Amino acid sequence: xxxxxxxxxxxxxxxxxxxxxxxxxxxxxxxxxxxxxxxxxxxxxxxxxxxxxxxxxxxxxxxxxxxxxxxxxxxxxxxxxxxxxxxxxxxxxxxxxxxxxxxxxxxxxxxxxxxxxxxxxxxxxxxxxxxxxxxxxxxxxxxxxxxxxxxxxxxxxxxxxxxxxxxxxxxxxxxxxxxxxxxxxxxxxxxxxxxxxxxxxxxxxxxxxxxxxxxxxxxxxxxxxxxxxxxxxxxxxxxxxxxxxxxxxxxxxxxxxxxxxxxxxxxxxxxxxxxxxxxxxxxxx
Length: 285
Hints:
The chain has helices at residues 4-18, 41-45, 149-156, 163-169, 178-187, 201-220, 281-284, and strands at 25-28, 49-56, 59-65, 71-77, 83-87, 97-102, 107-111, 118-123, 261-265, 268-272. The protein is of the alpha+beta class. It has two domains: 4-131, N-terminal domain of MutM-like DNA repair proteins, CATH 3.20.190.10; 149-284, Helicase, Ruva Protein, domain 3, CATH 1.10.8.50.
């Protein structure tokens, strides 16, 4: 599944091609995504101006000024296998190309083989888009200045769940999906089964710093290659070449040469080094 770095890479890739440009038409070939696409989307966005793009969690946001003077936000989630690509006007749509936004000089094309992604339209006359049901429950952004060790410690103090599951919950901080949760816990030498409430202030400080660094590195390297995920130009990211633990079951740890182990937490695979990330006495008990 595309995670925060992949979504941010997609946003950075499409933004120069669509910002300050006018949507001439919209073609929805298959509205049956995870949630049905707004039936009037083509009418709403006809001759709409794209003012800018942004991101909230794993949602890529396209801000629009409509022809009738109203404004709104397209909220695009890439789901398990979605991608956004910039295509030429004469490029024929392929299988699983479900939505086109056509501009004067290019097409923004939404591709999703599994159709587990979504495209929502939010009219700002209905309220702040950040209060939309898909966004309102999301935690703090990892690059927000308020995301600190103190913030993380406060969120962890009363939680008995493991830190790995806490990071995946999305309400402590957004964007730390399965891959990056495994990798950041390795960097911080924290066993993934450690209870959130057992983390020290120093560990929370280190986690906050390393989460920022890890996600920034992944964005700079184009994200990870996740099955069908590609960037807006069709190229794959290559952050996966720098994984320390994720997907490396049985391979030697880059730090100590011990074999990387795999376990399942909350139906998600977790990868860790048993030597670099030793289990606490509380876990053994």
